[in-house]
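Need S-adenosylmethionine:tRNA ribosyltransferase-isomerase's 3D structure for a figure. Predict it.
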Amino acid sequence: MNVDLFDFDLPAERIALRPVRPRDAARLLVATGDGAPFGDRHVRDLPQLLRRGDVLVFNDTRVIPAQLEGHRGEARVGATLHKRIDLRRWQAFIRNGKRLREGDCIAFPSEVQAVAEQRHEDGSWTLAFSGEEPVEVLLERAGQMPLPPYIAGKRPTDAADREDYQTMFARQDGAVAAPTASLHFTPDLVAALDAAGVARETLTLHVGAGTFLPVKAQDTAEHRMHAEWGRIDAETADRLNAARGAGGRLIAVGTTSLRLLESAAGEDGVIRAFEGDTSIFITPGYRFRAVDGLMTNFHLPRSTLFMLVSALMGLERMKAVYAYAVGNDYRFYSYGDSSLLLP
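Structure prediction for S-adenosylmethionine:tRNA ribosyltransferase-isomerase:
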């Protein structure tokens, strides 16, 4: 499909630079696939919007401070780690790296150093970190939270982002971008969902910086997604299948949860244990196997994530959703409001 089909106008003032407080006070636009009028609600209303037996599926990845600023000689170099290769090597996107050569050493703050080992076809590099400390320890010392470029370009990262850009479910280190739909949840909201009989499950997908890369191809068939590592254990898969078999709906909280669920599901709709990389790219025409709905924030024009929600709800329906959101002052992107999409 032509990428231009997924374009829309978004005023700059609709981009949220800070989250609302409390988190579950964010607005929630409810859209169904039957053409019914949109609902203007709040995230804290979820217990009234879901049914007993439904399951919310969260991503428990934890964002690491994967943004590094350093020097190669006299030249400043920025690195955003986006995928672990092994204990000491990460794949990274490099800013101002045109003159970087294999074997060059990059010096980061707090005596953290890395060697540029290999340049990849997409322009990213393999960085090998020096020393014996785990790379995560080095990042805590030298790194910053990797805010999305549409926020970082408008204000500096600060101490508040260490908490704001982390979900309450974060357990597994490895993401360089937050599963932002889960940012809206609070202990009080989770307790209310428990009381309403709405179950929850977790999986892990380490979100990479590739999620922010623009689609440069003119046709979706020519775009290649960056691989991200994920895992669903057998016990979780069994519980999800049982819930669905009993009539409950599986509602993915965030596109990351949705993409991993769909990667783990077979043609028969059965979710199986999964561990490894996925580069699934969901566009209109895709037949969903595992999910019955999606809670997600509002995404960029021409992005793979807007393509995904258009596949779930239909392109014209999603264009109407986004036009309504813009016209009614919904806040967009990672720190913005949310939507509940029920096809």
